[in-house]
Amino acid sequence: MMNNALLGHKANPYHHLSKNGQWLRITWVLKVFFAHYRHAPLQAGAILLGIALAVTLLIGVKATNDNAIRSYSEATELLSQRADVLLTSPVGQDNLDESVYFSLRQAGISQSLAVVSGRVAGQNGQYWQIEGSDIVAALTATLTSKNTSPSSNSKATANSAVSMGDLPLAALMSGEPVVVMSDSLASKIAPNGQLSLAQSIAPSTLKVIRVDDSWGLGSAILTDISLAQNLLGMQGKLSYIALFSDRDKLAALKQRLDTLGITPDLANYSQQDQGQALMALTRSFHLNLNAMSMLAFVVGLFIAYNGVRYSLMKRQRLLIQLLQQGLKRLDVMLALLAELLFLVILGSVIGFILGLQLSHWLQPMVAMTLEQLYGAHLLPGIWQWHWLAQAIALTLVAALAACLPLYFDLTRQSLAQGANRYQQTKAHNQTHQRQFILACGLLVLAAILFPFSQSYNTSLILLGIVTVAIPLLLPQVLHWGVSLLLPFTRPGLKHYLLAETRELIAPLSLAMMAILLALSANVAMNTLVGSFEQTLRSWLETRLHADLYLRPSANRMADVRDKLSQDPRVSGLYQQWQVDAEISIQGPTPQTIPVNLISRDDESIKYTSTLKDSLPDLWQRYFGGQFVLVSEPMAIKYQLMLGDKVTLNVLDKTTNNQVVIAGIYYDHGNTRNELIISHQLWQQAQLPLLPISLAASFYPLGQANKSSSSVLTQPIPTNGKRSEAELDELQMQLATELELAQAQIYSQANIKAQAIAMFKRTFSITLVLNSLTLLVAAIGLFSACLMLTQARQAPLARLYSLGVSRSKLRTMVFSQMLLVVVITCLIAMPTGALLGYLLIDKITLQAFGWTIPMIWDWFAYTKAILIALVTCTLAVLLPLYWQTRRPLIASLQQETL
């Protein structure tokens, strides 16, 4: 030990440095700190581990979200620039006549692009998105954009490598079975260079040309317009026409179209919003991801702060000795801050690199979710240096806020006092009491704000308040829990075990707070996902009433319907119609909203619409007047109520285009605006007669309809479900008889399986982030237990010298850690349930419009608790075994280090 009596001039090696500047003294202190870390690398490793894990998840989600938002704002037509105007099919028609495009080109409007879009069935039952366009026009528009306004379109620059010479234009324009797709997509669905389609589609095999992902094709399959029309059965038809123009010339463009006679009867004029609508639609999804990443960031900071506190605890004697040698308190404080800055920068750089790799793994999951829910396509990911700067700044601010009070306490302590265990324990108890009072205040505030949280933005703030309050409760609750057990133990080793456990709460509190936060979030997310899955299954049972669902191409629809209506095996045939429409809502802020307008036969509407709320005598009113059913997501988003009147633009051919909202129905999994009108009202509005899909129920095998009448509409059958084998046999028979691909016919079981699979893929990224957060907390628990076990080498050696066997020591230490973890897990159950309630009844309902009953998933909770217990076991037993094998003298010497 250093002799503190020698405090004269010669005992102060730093005295001669006072004239050379403060920075030199700080450098000498830093050298001492780094020498300390060479002998105790675990301490620096724990700090770096927490910071790196926190930044990894933060950067991983930020890079994924930023790339998605960039994709919305830079989305363009394939191989071309962003469209400023779209000409789409007129109201009541499925497609646009290609003569409109010819008229534009003949009139000299060369900045236009014809597009045919649709899905084709593959042999394996999957559907692929086909995009057919005038490829020469697309590339010409891009070149024109770059020559006239290089900075007007960022995607034009990204596509600078795309040129006509890079594509097999001769083969494409001659209508040969050639398609173009991104390299990443081709490696998944066409690794052999060929894409096989359903047998009823000609040609059934397409040659695949692979291009670099930087072309921005995403998951779309590009081909020439002539081949796309053939594959989709859209000869002479277009999906839409994209027009490119300067934003200040759109009025002149509209006037020129009117002059050419391109009126709403021929094409619907739609000005684009530069991706703003898609950004607004997906905002809640990205908010949820950000919330998960911030939760993981906070858990990581808990680990880092725990490492900092442990390191300072082990260096407390060293800091006292430095101050006793004459160093100024300010110099030691600045050295501690410089050390923290270095660790934050190093940890952030490591986390930044790992975060970019994490984003690379998360990107496909996010792309799949956004495509399934919102129809959005993501561009190839990029990364920015300023993300690293933001991560360093955020981490440094958080670290300073957490560590500064600790630094001040250490540098202000009395040099004569040294390390006073009683004073430290008293300070910890006071801190825990203040944290408990603060947590109670936050929970009371959340309860007061609860009735006023009517949007998901405010509900997320409410969720954040509760999330902060939960870990603050833990240390005091742990202290009370252990104290309640003390009177039930006899004097001796067991009483000592509990008494010491109470003293261990302070050094373990941060790790336990992190594991509590992660476990609560895990319980909440598993409750949400499990409840949603059960709700979705129940909803599908009601929604899917027929045995088979058919979706033939438009040119085969009438023929298939007629054949099924005369098939003696069919007990009921049901149809669904759909068009794009708009409704106008009157009020303080009138607005026009695009919607999917749907109609079904009366029986399907009545028996498959799961109603949330409705007017009295709904069906008598609905089928005989101007009434409409509104999906729950749309009703919540636009605050539509029963009895509200809205104007529906496609009803302009009826006596009144105003409709009354008669019911609100559950529509789980759908985020789009949707309305249902009766088929009688559909016919009055002279909307398309051909349905977009058919559904059929069948008599049991061996029975048939003895009547010769049509079965276009029959009551929903109640004779039970067909077996899966019967449905498979029927599916194969109908595919042959109706000349349809089996991929165009779905059974109930297949639809349910695909819906559940899509649901699992949609929530996969949330579950991954949730699991990563729990993993981060588990690593933090391991780190804290390892450091604490190392710090207790001397007390354990003293017990061993008093006659306590090594096996009893291991059992005692393990029991102590296990007791603290079990209490933490027990607290995580109600707190997780509270977070789950807020996620289900507030966030999900307000953000997506889905009402979900809360269902407990005990298996998922048990798995999360087992992870915590196994982590605790490994964290305690391994270092404890190593250290109890050390010589007694070596362990006792730790007392003086």
Radius of gyration: 34 Å
Largest sheet: 6 strands, mixed
Percent of residues in beta strands? 5-15%
Distance between the amino and carboxyl termini? 9 Å
Strand order of the largest sheet: 8-4-3-10-1-11
Shape: elongated
Mean pLDDT comes to 76
Low-confidence stretches: 1-19, 145-162
Q: How many helix segments? A: 28
Task: Tell me roughly what share of residues is in helical segments.
Answer: 55-70%
Structural class: alpha+beta
Number of strands: 21
Structural features, described:
The protein is α+β, with helices and mostly antiparallel strands and 897 residues long. Among the domains are: 1-75 and 284-417, no CATH class; 77-274, no CATH class; 548-720, no CATH class. The chain is built from 28 helices and 21 strands. A 6-stranded mixed β-sheet has the order 8-4-3-10-1-11. Helix 16 runs antiparallel to helix 24 (764-791) and helix 16 (493-543) packs parallel to helix 26 (806-848). The radius of gyration is 34 Å and the shape is elongated.
Descriptive keywords:
single chain; 897 residues; alpha+beta; six-stranded mixed sheet; six-stranded mixed beta barrel; elongated; disordered N terminus; ABC3_permease_C; ABC-type export system permease component AttFG; transmembrane; transmembrane helix
Question: Helices and strands in order, then pairings?
Answer:
Blueprint: H1 22-39, H2 41-74, E1 85-88, E2 96-97, H3 99-106, E3 112-121, E4 127-133, H4 135-148, H5 154-158, H6 169-173, E5 178-182, H7 183-189, E6 194-196, E7 205-211, E8 221-224, H8 225-232, E9 237-238, E10 240-243, H9 250-259, E11 268-271, H10 276-314, H11 316-324, H12 329-374, H13 385-412, H14 421-449, H15 456-485, H16 493-543, E12 548-550, H17 557-565, E13 570-585, E14 591-600, H18 602-608, E15 611-614, H19 618-622, E16 627-631, H20 632-637, E17 645-648, E18 658-665, E19 674-677, H21 679-684, E20 693-698, H22 724-737, E21 745-747, H23 748-762, H24 764-791, H25 793-801, H26 806-848, H27 858-884, H28 888-892
Parallel strand pairs: 4-8, 5-7, 14-19, 16-18
Antiparallel strand pairs: 1-10, 1-11, 2-9, 3-4, 3-10, 6-7, 12-20, 12-21, 13-14, 13-17, 13-20, 15-18, 16-19, 17-18
